[in-house]
Amino acid sequence: MMGIASPQPAPSEATPRPAASAPALAGEVHGEPRSLLSDAWRQFRKHKLAVGSLAVMILMVLGVIVGPMLIAYDPERIDFKTKNEPPSLAHPMGTDELGRDQLVRVLDGGRVSLAVALAAVLVAVSVGVAVGALAGFAGGLTDNLLMRLVDVFYSLPGLFVLILLVTLLGPGFWTIVIALGVLRWMGTARLVRASFLSLREKEFVEAARAIGARRWSIVVRHILPNALSPIIVAATLGIAGAILTESALSFLGLGFQPPQATWGRMLEEAQRPVITDGQWWRGFFPGLMIFITVLSVNYIGDGLRDAVDPRRVER
Amino acid sequence: MVHATAAPQAAHEHTNVMDRRLHRRGLLAGTTAAAMLAALRGTGLSASAAAQDAGEPTRGGKAVIALIQEPGQMNPFFNVQSGSFLSTLALDPLFVPDADGNYLPVLAAEVPTLENGGISEDFLTITYKLRDGITWSDGEPFTADDVVFSFEIYKNPESTTALGTAYELIESVTAIDPLTVEVKMSDINPAYLTLWDSEGPVQPKHLFESSAVTQEHPLARLPVGTGPFVFTDWKTGDEITLTRNEKYRDPERPYLDGVTIKITPEKETAIASFIAGEFDTIYFITTGDLPTLSAAQEAGDGIVVALQEGPSHVEWLWLNMSDNGDPGKPHPVLGDPAIREAMDHGIDRQTVIDEVLGGFGYQVGSFIYAGWAAVDIPAATYDPALANSLLDEAGWVMGDDGVRVKDGVRASLRYQTIAGDQTRELYQQVVQQNMKDIGIELVIENVPSNTIFGSWEEGGIFMRGDYDILMSRAGYFVDPASWAKDFTSDQIPSDEFPGGFNRVRYQSEAFDEAVNAAAQTLDQAVRGEAYTTAAQQFAADRPSLPLYSSAWGWTWNERLQGVDTAFWEGMWPSSAGWYVNEG
Amino acid sequence: MGHYLVRRTLQAVPLLIAISAIIFVMLQMTPGGPLATGEGGGRSARVTAEDLQRLRNKYGLDDPLYVQYFHWGSDLLRGDWGTSFNTGLPVLTMIGERLPTTLLVMGLSFLTTLVLAIPIGILAAVRRYSIFDYLTTTVSFLGIAIPSFWFALMLMFIFSFTLGWLPSVGLSDPRVEHSGMAAVIDRAQHLIMPVAVLALTSTASLTRYVRAAMLDVIGQDYVRTAQAKGLAERTVILVHALKNGAIPIVTVLALELPDLFIGAVIVESVFAISGMGRLFIESANLRDYPVLMGVLVITAILVVTFNLIADLLYATLDPRIRFQ
Questions:
Q1: Residue B354, C-beta contacts closer than 8 angstroms, at least 6 positions apart
Q2: Which end of chain C has the smaller Cβ count within 10 Å, N or C?
Q3: Taking CB atoms and an 8 Å limit, are B276 and C168 in contact across chains?
């Protein structure tokens, strides 16, 4: 998963994207979810970069939500009197060729970029959990069929299908979210299925079954929480991949429609100003935001992995 | 001055131009050649960049042209994509229009006129005299049989030609002798000088096994001609190479050893690389590129930018007059004349030109703004207050969200053009804001070209009427006959008439009447008057709004010498005279 | 295992059918088509209705969808990949012209990745928590975090437009015909930036992977035993640890190839390289169905093949794995 389509660092996932037959590793099984969480937090705090990154991301999210409200400029209002200004006190990130404040556009665009990434990951995780849980719990033919479906999707040339979908359906929030999500759920599905397979026979599940708990409640209350940690790690890293893919789509002219800013679109629009007019600020700031976000998300993912898999850290 | 033609005649007086740059249709019946001959008016380009004077031309070297959009075939006889125009490097037309629109003979020996007997008294027979001593690049002589054969290709139902409607009026093509071709028309064909021009050049008979030629034919991809260069190779997606035609009619020329057409699909990169000196010229640039290129020229980057004077294509906002393509129902928002009038006054055209296009553009208000019949109607004044009051009066009430509403209909419209053009996206946003200021919401939804311009059968949204506002360039014609006809109500596309071109579905009896009147007379004065009526009607009804008229230009590296833009088609017909001065 | 191979290959067939059918339907459902005429932009935009209809008949575009799909599919089975609507060339010819270019850029990037990532990753694992390790981590995160098109543009901006050291686009100098050594150098100059861009992301992530895999094995008992026995560190690392760490690394490498292949689309766009990615985008824009389908089928075959190779390698290296 290292190409353009899915540039997340592969080692992170508990399963290194094994092909169908390779044994999917189950996440480590822990006892109670609650102690797992507090345990994890204690471990996570040890990873200083991850903690720092988490702080950065919280600031980033707050910034893109609250920021545009605090800034006097409208991200879309055109004012030619202030066009192409380099960074200054009034416009810390400069202005674009339509005289719009880059800072507010970076924040407003960040909201969309992050929202797309988050929504895409949510779609991917939801589909993945549903498919994985069904396959793992039902077993048999259902399992077999679903896993073949996973193979089908793994074999799709991801970015190509994405380009085709967006070319044909026209770019838009949901097109991009669904296209991104639909191509990224398979890892989660395998993780969840693997957890199910290993947990199904565990004592606490047996016990729950013995006292007459329903199948559903066993899934929701006992098995899912235990499968959660690798999913969270994979999802975190998926955000980084989605942000980068959105920017690649923008570059190919398949990003959001104007006047909506996204980081990817801003970078794409900055090509000519930067290269032929030397307006470095046009590319620098949106690029920096993508960079910081992807970096932070990766560190957080790193920290999370250590946190939910203590064996790795204390080895 | 260096010309592509070895010895161009002095411009023939009274030789009219049928501009076919955007529009392939010949004029419809009703114009006489005589009326046409009297029609010339200087609307063409008075080229601003004369041939450079840089000493003696030297032989040798290559020129590199960056081509943004690779065509499927290089032979324009079988291809309408813009890139196949570069075949003009290898293929000669019968006539080439100069900068003022006067046709000069190239493969023809002279321009047919009434005086020289080239045009019959009833205007239905045109006799083309061919230039003697021309050979194809393989050495075979170029004769009247080739012209006859080219027409046979077009007539053969097995062929897949891509020629304009001017050919539809041809009844027969006969070779009188090896250098004389007689063409009989079924009706008066004012486009007779555009037959076998750079968009449908004569094909070499001796190289074809039959007249059934499809676009798969190797000669459809890489044609053979009589021009200064010869196509030698095409690595698809990469480059097309041409070498000197050793059999060219002027033994001194071409000066260059060859030309390489380098396909560079990302325009931003292509322009940057061009400015950095990696290419000698670009095919082709648009208004939005001119500010960058002019700035580079002033900064001493060693490039030349030549501009045509006066307006060229107009960027139109096509307003859908129908509800989803059904001409029986008016568009819920755009069907209201007040909306269209308010929009017209709400657009700040001058700001678009000055701030987005760097001043490279003109305001235009008339439907017929170029050509002999040009009607001088100024663009609507920018007056948002007027626009707002118009809407208020018409009952469009401002809603809480800043969008006007009338009878439960929100004034919210899709605004679409071809995706991926950054300059267009910039002024789309200006127009969007202008409209927001008067309570009309525009939602930009740009899509690929093929989605917009697909045929009726393919469900192209323009043809089907599945749009609110579309934006594209058109309208630059010397004679407005076919252009005007595209807006008459009998041209509305439908299942029965999928080839109709009135895609805005404009219906006005007064307009129809005026356009038909113009098509039924031979009297130029009457025609002009009728077109004036039509243009005024159009301006009053506003089925489409002109945004601005492009400036048109060409650019090349100073390394390339001998470039002459004194042609209607700019620098390209002068390629035989190009040379490079290294060192 | 032979049985397994056959089964996996057979699985690819319904997969390809499913993919192609979905895409076929998608293509036809959306407005617009291959015969759109366009805006012109300096040229005519209008063909006669008769000419259009001739093309429709020729390509069978008026046939029902399932008939068109059936024709395409049965032709493909007979080895006929169809003819491009746009160029009139056989699809296989067009792919044949582009595939080598993409494979060249991809292959060089892959080699670069290997040569850089494995030693760096091992060293980072061995010198865990050293400055080198942190540096590696930081640099590889940097590599992962830069959108590749932007990285490409910045390289071009610096090395082509500012310094003038490297040519910006294409794979050869269009002005001068080079031969012999000069041609190789010319080609190399054109390849440096595209390969660097493509290799950056994969090197960055592979380094991380190698490091993690090595850390895993270094922690294992037998390595500790080897160390305790006083074997030279180099021997321990290279012989014992690497042998075991290689399993996941090799798997990931095999899986990475299709990603490089697909990732080339960005690089090909920025550097105007005529490869498969560009071909795909262009035919998507032109609705050139036969080419589009051809590229997708080839790509899907590649992906499936590399997945298979990864599986096989995994099994060969790790005897504990048995094929079902």
A1: none
A2: C
A3: yes
